[in-house]
Amino acid sequence: MARTILIGAPIDSGQRRAGCLMGPSAYRVAGIAREIAASGGHEVADWGDVALPVPLRAASCPNPAVHALAETLGWTEALSARVLAALEAGGMPVIMGGDHSLALGSVAGAAAFAARAGRPLFLLWLDAHSDFHTPLTTTSGNLHGTPLAYIAGREGFDAFPPFPAPLPPERICMFGIRSVDPEEHAAMALHEIRVNDMRVIDERGIVAPLREFLDAVRAAQGMLHVSLDVDFLDPSIAPAVGTTVPGGATFREAHLVMELLHESGLVTSLDLVELNPFLDDRGMTARLMVDLVGSLMGKKVFDRPTRAK
Predict the structure, then answer these.
(1) Burial of residue 200, with CB atoms counted within 10 A of its CB: 0-12 exposed, 13-18 middle, 19 or more buried
(2) How far is the C-alpha of 281 from the C-alpha of 217, rounded, in Å?
């Protein structure tokens, strides 16, 4: 029986709009453990929420715009250790956030485990944004816009622990991107990272580019970390995020992605990020995200009951 380990990451330090710290509680209330357990007979263990280490160690950055650096660094170190422990315990960690700065730690933990296991780590980034700034280039100072740069080995993260085995571009798949700053775009071109933006998806569909990436993971016998941002989804179906961008994935497109991931059998860890329950409409976004996790775990389209009108 597959074992899923839930890890709460009540992180708000990566951006300035309060509310993401309530995300883990919202996922639990929306029934994430029950959904996973009902989807293919998974065993579920809830390891509770990661705590911010106290006292925080001092940290500084030459960029005066950067805020909450010490807090974000503390969360990164704590979450990296928790994800590594979950993988070492033989589980599949599902990290319930929390803003996207949590990926600084979650992917670091997965990368550390992959390196010890002698397997390459791949990353599927389901997001409206590229998050390819560094602490030195961000103008907003929001560190939730930096994790992919950290993961890819960009310079500028001197305050952070060195990322374990930075991922080369062929092991990163940006999917659903539709909001990239000019500086990020230039840096991505230098790193030769392939971007499957919404234009690519409009032209080629969901299936072909995703299967190409999954085929590469399978050929390399790799591990796959999936980082799912609420704003990957169109705001009409997922309003509970502070960084909405029109033109996101539809209900069926999002479920198709999750179904293909389940069929691949390749996913070894998962982030659920940027859910802000304060911005939700009667829990619709939390319930949708939980439903998507169900699809990732094996729930079928015809398993879903008809809802009363």
Answers:
(1) middle
(2) 37
SS3 letters across 207-246 = HHHHHHHHHHHHHCCCEEEEEEEHHHECCCCCCCCCCCCC
Q: For this structure, is 131 an active site residue?
A: yes
What gap in Å lies between CA 162 and CA 57, rounded to an integer? 16
Choose the catalytic residue: 12, 49, 77, 231.
231
CATH for the 3-297 domain, from 3.90.20.10, 3.40.800.10, 1.20.120.530, 1.10.110.30: 3.40.800.10
Catalytic residue among 129, 133, 225, 262: 129
Given the residues 184, 274, 280, 291, select the one marked as catalytic: 274
Q: Is 42 a catalytic residue?
A: no
pLDDT in the model for residue 190:
87
Threshold 0.85, pTM exceeds: yes
User: How confident is the prediction for the chain on average, in pLDDT?
Assistant: 94
Q: Is 99 a catalytic residue?
A: no
pLDDT at 60: 94
> In whole angstroms, how far apart are CA 235 and each of 35, 244, 247?
23, 6, 8
* Residue 262 annotated to the active site: no
Q: What pLDDT score does 305 carry?
A: 62
- Ramachandran class of 112: left when φ > 0, alpha when ψ lies in -120 to 50, beta otherwise: alpha
> Where are the domains positioned within the chain?
3-297
The three-state secondary structure class of 96 is: strand
Is 185 among the catalytic positions? no
Residue 280 is a catalytic residue: no
Phi then psi for residue 188, to 5 deg, are -65, -35
Q: Which of 77, 99, 229, 280 is catalytic?
A: 229
Q: Please say if 181 is a catalytic residue.
A: no
144, 225, 255, 262: the active-site residue: 144
Q: Which residue ranges in the chain fall short of pLDDT 70?
A: 1, 301-309
Instruction: State the catalytic residue, choosing from 35, 49, 100, 234.
Output: 100
